[in-house]
Fold this sequence. Notes:
Elements: H1 2-16, H2 21-30, H3 32-41, E1 50-52, E2 59-61, H4 82-90
Antiparallel strand pairs: 1-2
Helix pairs in contact: 1-2, 1-3, 2-3
Amino acid sequence: MILLFFGLSAGAVAKIKGGPFFIWFLIGFCLPFFGTIAALVSRTERSTPLRACPECGNVVPIHDQVCNSCGADLDFPEPEDEDEDEDEAAVAPGQERLF
């Protein structure tokens, strides 16, 4: 009964975070206390940023290196310059930049 409880708690926590219920249920069932703790500290799948594949347009998590749909290699995107974005936002629409 205790093993079932730990399995259900690990599975429920993982499902809330966007992970697979059954796999985490088995982990929590086999490793009673540690499975639930592992489910609590695992990353949240729902908050992972996404990007579109340039070849087929399939939306994949940003940490994937290969597209699941077409198999294209994906480069890690370059970080955008925040200074340029802030400068562009400071100029009102219809105004010219003088510098």
